[in-house]
Write a structure and sequence with these properties.
47% of the residues lie in helices and 13% in strands. By secondary structure, it is an alpha/beta fold.
Length: 368
Amino acid sequence: MKQITRICWLLLGIVFIFSGLVKLNDPIGTALKLEEYFEVFSKDFGSFFQVFIPHARTLSIFLSSLEVVLGVAVLLRWMLRQTLWVLLALLVFFGFLTFYSAAFNKVTDCGCFGDFIKLTPWTSFAKDMFLLLLWAVVFFNLRYLRRVFAKGTLGVMYITIASAVAIGIGVRALGHLPYFDFLPYKEGNDIGQLMKPQEAARYEYVMERNGESKTFTEYPTDSTWKYKSMNVLNPEKSKPLITDFSVFDADGKDYTGEVLKGNKLVLVVQDVQSADRDRYKDINSLLEAASKSRKRIESLVITSSSPGAFDAYRHDVNLGAPFYFADATVLKSMIRSNPGLILLQNGVVKGKYHYHDIPAIGDLEAKL
């Protein structure tokens, strides 16, 4: 039992650290997932949860950092009994979220491991129950974990350092782009190709005859078999990774194909209400330099705001590039920056830039 307890203790600490770091890699993505939960709860349990929506980014960094710090505390066995009680509160909370999402089909991806590992609601709930099992093994066998690796002042120092590092990782990612991009629009991906399935769908057919069921990989020509059901054998590869990328002008005319041709510098303005307005001197200079580039870089803007709202915004920031429209969720997936810049070459993502990291024209040309 001693070895089992130590294995459970090690797994519990590592999983919490890993989960927190993955979320801190993309705190904006975690915040979007929290907003989704808050919106669901505000509809189902009352408008009280709407109070948390404006603070989603702060909560994102706090909860993600807390996971890392608790994981470190578990591994150091620092105030282990008290740490385990806090872990239990988190596990019960997360367990409720995942069970509610799974049972009532509310949130299809819990965001437990960010965009690095996608989990279905029931898989997420099973993961929480597994962690709860690890917790129970550790908590009820603390006699096997009496040695503390950091006591007193040294323990406080380690926990303080872990807190500072975790918060620092999250805050830096919040003001720039994620350290690792796991989204479909990451650098190097071909958007046009990802809008197509990797391979043709393959099916199996369940047929029935005289009370007997049989599965066929090809539809039987024998008419005595009656169709019962059909299953897709390769659901992941037969479905495009990008299914909702669509760009259109104010009149509704599709512009998606044009965006994926040639060299394009795309300024993504997700929402004019929350978009930064202080960097447009540098942004406008870059857009002007791109239009004169020997690489023939065409600049354009894509937004999810209404034509009227964006028209007022572009006049306010002296933005002269042509503008088009796309779904808000798509733009949030494209880049975690508002505004943000994406460099495309025939639909291939060559570069992504936060508004805090506006590149020089030479940097863009070097990537084309």
